[in-house]
Request: fold
Amino acid sequence: MAHEYAAPDTVALDDENGTLVIIDQTKLPGRVEFLSLRKQEDIHRAIRSLQVRGAPAIGVAAAIGAYLAALDIDTADYGEFHARFASALEYLASSRPTAVNLFWALDRMGRIVRRNDNLPVETIKSLLRDEAASIRDEDIRVCRAIGEHALGLIKNVRGVLTYCNAGRLATVRYGTALAPIYIGKEKGYSFKVYSCETRPLLQGARLTAFELNDAGIDVTVVCDNMASRVMKNGWVQAVLVGCDRVAANGDVCNKIGTSGVAVMAHHYGIPFYVCAPTSTIDMRTPDGSGIIIEERPASEVTDMWYRERMTPSGASVYNPAFDVSDAELITAIITEYGVARAPYRENLAKIFETRGRIETDKMGG
Ligand code: MRU
Reply:
C-alpha cells in the first residue's frame, strides 16, 4: 500500500487535461484511487460526498473547480462571463456549509473576476488559473509554517491524541494538526499518536491511521469513547486537532465529537491545541453560535459501515457533522503567523495584523 500511495498531493490541477485530480477518500484505506474531475456536478458531488474533505482541501478543490468552470464559459462578453461565473461559484458554495475555507476560496476567485472587468475574458481565465494555483501553493506553505509553530509546543511530548483527520489528506500536503508530527519526524522526533476513530465517517480510523502508517509514524486507533481512558492512563501529553471555522472569540468548530475531547482534556489538564490556517479563522462570525452546522444523512449512522441496518427503523437519528468547542477549553490556536492564546478576540486580531504587515512588506511597502 505504502508505495502505491507515495504521498502525492491530495488535491491537484492537471493543466494538460483541464481537470481537478483528487484522491478518492471514500475508498481509503482499502483502495488508493485518483479521480480526474471536470464537470461541475462531479466536483460538487466530490465535496458533498467527502471524496475530497477537510477544510483546506475543500477550499483548494473549490478554487480549482471554479477555474475549470470558467474554462467552460464560452463567451467573450464580460457581462455574460461574470454572471455565469457567479452562478458557478454559488453552485460550488452550496456543496457544504460549515468549513469557511470553501467560501473564502470562492470569494478570492470571484474577486479576480470583479477586479479585472477591463480585461479580455481569456486573460481573466488565465488570472483565475494563477489564483487557484496560489491558493494551492499557499496551503502548502501555510501548513508547513503551522507545523513548525506547533512543533515548538510539543517538543517534549511523547503521546499525542488527535481527532478526525487534519493531516495531509485534509490539505494539499502536511496537514495542519499532523504537520508537526511529519516535520518532527524529519527532525528526528518520534511521537506516538492516538487517533480517535471519529464516528460516523471514521476519518480517524480510516484516514489519519492510513496516512500516518504510510509515513512510518506510530499510530494507535481508539474508539471515540476510549479517549478518556487514554488520557487517564497518562499516555498523551497533548491533543492536536484541526478545525473548520474559528469564530472571532476563539470558539472552534470542528468534526462532531471534538468538543467532548476538549472537555476531557480540560478535565485531565492536558493542553488542547487547535491548528488553524488564517483562512479558517472567520472574524466576521462573533462566536460559535453563528456557525452553520452541517447535518448529514441518517444512513451514515445506521447503515453505512454495517452489513445490515444497526438501529430499528422507527428510531430517529441525529447526525450533525460538526460541533463547537468553547474558547475557554482551548489552550492555544496555532496559525501560520504564530500562536494565539486567550483572550482570543484580541490575540486573533493581532495575528491578522501580523499577516497584514507581512503581506504589505511582500508587496514592497
Ligand atoms: O467532514 P470532514 O471530514 O470534512 O471534516 C474535517 C474536519 O473536521 C477536520 O478536522 C477539519 O476540516 C480540519 S482539516 C485540516
The longest strand covers residues 19-23.
